[in-house]
Amino acid sequence: DKIQIAEIVDTLRKAELDPETEVILGVPALYLEHVIRMVPAIFNVAAQNAYKVPKGAFTGEISPAMIKDIGCSWVILGHSERRAIFGETDELIAEKVAHALETGLKVIACVGESLAEREAGKTEEVVFRQVKALTNTVKEWTHIVIA
């Protein structure tokens, strides 16, 4: 909620942060513009999701162009919750990443295994597969952070 957001932003404003460290706040879509207006320019704001196409009948989805239009420069894609709860595949995430980059956003591309995959000793296999999907669609890596 807005009260909690204000507390987080206030804490960050008061923090002694390394000036060489880039701070990016991942924000729910409903609060993106609110946070962009209230944070100092030294902080960046990231949307928590975006869709793979610029426009169309995709009720509830947010395009990278919409995110960019409100002054947001980052997006988080491939989060484990999106993979697990919404069934997002490596291929879909790679398409989303490629389109976000084409639109001019910077991307935090999340990779990682589930607990079951970790317990089965498949961490490296899963992370390799997820990164490999990205390499099939992404040609320029300057604006990507792998998390």
TrEMBL record:
Keywords assigned: Gluconeogenesis, Glycolysis, Isomerase
Pathway in which the depicted protein is active: Carbohydrate biosynthesis; gluconeogenesis; Carbohydrate degradation; glycolysis; D-glyceraldehyde 3-phosphate from glycerone phosphate: step 1/1
Any Pfam family hit: TIM
Family matches, as CDD domains: TIM (cd00311)
Reactions accelerated catalytically: D-glyceraldehyde 3-phosphate = dihydroxyacetone phosphate
InterPro entries in alphabetical order: Aldolase_TIM, TIM_sf, Triosephosphate_isomerase
Record-linked Gene3D superfamilies: Aldolase class I
Any one of the GO BP annotations: gluconeogenesis
E.C. code: 5.3.1.1
GO CC annotation terms, alphabetical: cytosol
Example GO molecular function: triose-phosphate isomerase activity
Coiled coil: none
Subunit structure: Homodimer.
Similarity annotation: Belongs to the triosephosphate isomerase family.
Listed PANTHER family: TRIOSEPHOSPHATE ISOMERASE
Protein name, as recorded: Triosephosphate isomerase
Organism (species): Micropterix calthella
